[in-house]
Every structure is written in structure tokens, then in C-alpha cells.
Amino acid sequence: xxxxxxxxxxxxxxxxxxxxxxxxxxxxxxxxxxxxxxxxxxxxxxxxxxxxxxxxxxxxxxxxxxxxxxxxxxxxxxxxxxxxxxxxxxxxxxxxxxxxxxxxxxxxxxxxxxxxxxxxxxxxxxxxxxxxxxxxxxxxxxxxxxxxxxxxxxxxxxxxxxxxxxxxxxxxxxxxxxxxxxxxxxxxxxxxxxxxxxxxxxxxxxxxxxxxxxxxxxxxxxxxxxxxxxxxxxxxxxxxxxxxxxxxxxxxxxxxxxxxxxxxxxxxxxxxxxxxxxxxxxxxxxxxxxxxxxxxxxx
Length: 299
What we know:
Layout (H helix, E strand, L loop, with lengths): L18 E8 L5 E4 L4 E8 L1 E6 L2 E6 L3 E4 L5 E5 L5 E8 L11 H11 L3 E2 L3 E2 L4 H19 L4 H16 L4 E2 L6 H21 L6 H7 L4 H12 L3 H17 L6 H7 L5 H12 L3 H16 L1
Antiparallel strand pairs: 1-8, 2-7, 3-6, 3-8, 4-5, 4-7, 6-10, 9-11
Helix pairs in contact: 2-3, 5-6
């Protein structure tokens, strides 16, 4: 799939039905770095296991489990083990749940949830009947989207509303939970920095320049950044650059020295060293493995 498809600023589906379902493969150490979007995202772990950072929390999903990522929530995903894993991501505009007029559903449930005043359970393990029901509706949405039978849009929207109805009896109000507003403020404060890094990762990004975006000293900024993103700023920038380099390596005609420069590494040797540290192999080894895998699929 297009690994940029889940990043912020992309349209999912179309104007008449703003929903898409993506199959996301976590192979060869690939991951999604921290990002967010205004759409709701439902994750269903189809095979293997993966680690997800949601806001300031970390969760591991096993096969057959799921989670919900609210609109605007910062999140990232990583392989949990060396074995391949994949999940399906159902991404939709919150307006898909809305009615044509402002009604009780919008007033009592949807608006409070989108404003983070109402907190819905967001991890589903099959431990309870309601969790199993939520996962069943997610599976049905995936089937409907893939097969696209007559009326599939209606069935998917009905499944979305059914999920919401299953979750509501187990919801909580954010005002009743200590620490929620503090974490939300931290996440909102770091978002401009992450956006700036994503837009400028090919350039030199001095710590002082990044710290200035949130009016902090370099030392305070580094501690603040790591407390949320779980990486230092340099580690995050390098991981993002390597993430971009992987896609470039899949073109056998692009020289590795050119890829290093294209993704922001000033030194090819540092690029190779960083790539091996993060992926367990050199860029050349990765390219060979990818080409071999492509040939096997072609056969």
C-alpha cells in the first residue's frame, strides 16, 4: 500500500463516502512514525502483533484484537517482533456519523467525543461480549469494503453506529479522570514540532530551531519530546529519514549515495550506519531482500 496514505492531510474515500480501508504490512522493520489526522481510525490486527503509541499510552495488539484512534489523536505503530505482521486500518471522516441536521446523536454523543469530553473504550481484546461485538462489526466493515456489494456504504455506516452504541455504556467523561487534560495539552503542544520535522526532514534541523517552536530551552525540549514520542528528537528525525529511504531503495536504479542525500543525511557512511542500527541490515542488503521478495511474488 501507499505508506503516506495514512498521514495527515490526505483524503480518505471520496466526498460522497469519506472512508477507506487500508491493509498495512509491518515487514522488514517498517513502521508508521508519529502522525495524526482529523479522521477517526479503527485498527484491526489481522496477523501477528504490533506495538502502538496512542497519545502518551503504549499498547501491543495481538491477532484478532482492535483499537480506536479518535480524531486528532497522535499515534504511531511499530512491529512488535521480527516476524511479519499486518493490520487493517479503517479511516473515516467523523462527518460520516453525522445526520443532515443537528440531532440528539450529534449533541449527546458525537460532539462530546470529538471534543474529548466523552472518552470511549479504545482497546478491544475479546474478553467481554461487547468487545467481541465491536470486533465483529469491524470485520464486517472490512468484508463490505472489500466486496462492495449493493448497499455496502449503508451497511458500513450502520456498523460504525453499532460500534458507537456498543461503546457508549462503557464510556467516561474526561472531567472525571485526573491527568487527561494535562496529557492532551502536551500532545497539542508537540504537534507543530512533528509537522515541522515531517515537512523539513530533508534539511538540517538544529535542536535550537525545534526548541524555539515551543519556546523551550534545548535541554527542556529534549526531555519534553522524549516523554511523549518515546525517542529523542535526533532518533525521531533519523527514523523518519530511514522510513523515507526504504521507499527509495525499492527503486533499483537509484544510487544509495543519492538516497542518503535525498532523505537528509549529509554523510553516506552515517546513513548506512543508522540504517543498519534501525533495520538490522545495510541499505544494500535491504534492496537485495526486497528485489528477491518481488521476484518470488511475480513467480
